[in-house]
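User: Hi! I'm working on a homework problem where we have to compare a predicted structure to a textbook description. Could you give me the structure for the chain below?
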Amino acid sequence: MPHAFQQSVITEFRANAGKVGGPFEGADLLLLTTTGARSGKPHTTPLGYVRDGRRLLVVGSNLGAPLHPDWYRNLLARPAVTVELGDEEFESLAVPAEGARRDELFARVVAEAPGYADYQDATDRVLPVVVLERPDPDAAVPAITSLAGKLVETHTWLRAQLRHVHAETEAHFAARGDRGAHDAPAPGLGLQIRQRCLAFCQALEFHHTAEDGHLFPAMEGHHPRLGRVFDRLREEHRSIGAVQSALAALLADVAVAEPDRFRAELTRMTEELTAHLDYEEEHLLPLLAGVPWPPAAAS
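Assistant: Happy to help. Predicted structure tokens:
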């Protein structure tokens, strides 16, 4: 899709709550914003989609071209994406389906949009089917009024994502141990584990960078007596960063090549990060409870 035309579709989509005319009139369309694998910049792409329950399915057809589209390569490198659907916008984890599950979902897509079968016939590559989860509409979102509440929200998300990765990894290894050699899953870890863990690693890096660059220096100015606390927190950031780098290196290949090493590094991450978050909350939450969130706009 030429850039100028694509931008016109994006503009019309946002101006009309997801409705566009021309060749996309009446089509189910969403906007997917990925982060550039190399540039780190946001890229928004209009895509057709098919609903599968509360999930949304998008296909990396690239009109049957021999290479995957840029947006697909982006989400493999940075799985956290933003989805715009009509007047709804939400963050999602993009997970390509694999094996028989991919074939099942592709058949589901083709049943509603037969043109994707033509795109598959036009290329030797297997068109990827990407699953985008929508947020639970019944999930309660607590009001956050202080910086302490914001810190707890971030820590809660990190803990939950780490538990999910750990549980899925242990389930994978249990399946390998319980089944015979012919029935065991492939020695890799699968894209579900990879995408979730990679998103966790990237969010953790962003959080710790923000703390080191902004939160800790600002707090030290008001609480110089806590210098040893901040020194310890920074040192723990460096130690956890080394584990995160090791995990990210293992996840660089879509088919995680060393699952046993990944499992060991994940266990190390769980132990070190859990202790770090507990210590940080013990010492910082009382100080942040009186700091309003969101911060007041400068006059």
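For your comparison, note the following. The radius of gyration is 22 Å. Residues 147-178 form the longest helix (32 residues). Good luck with the assignment!
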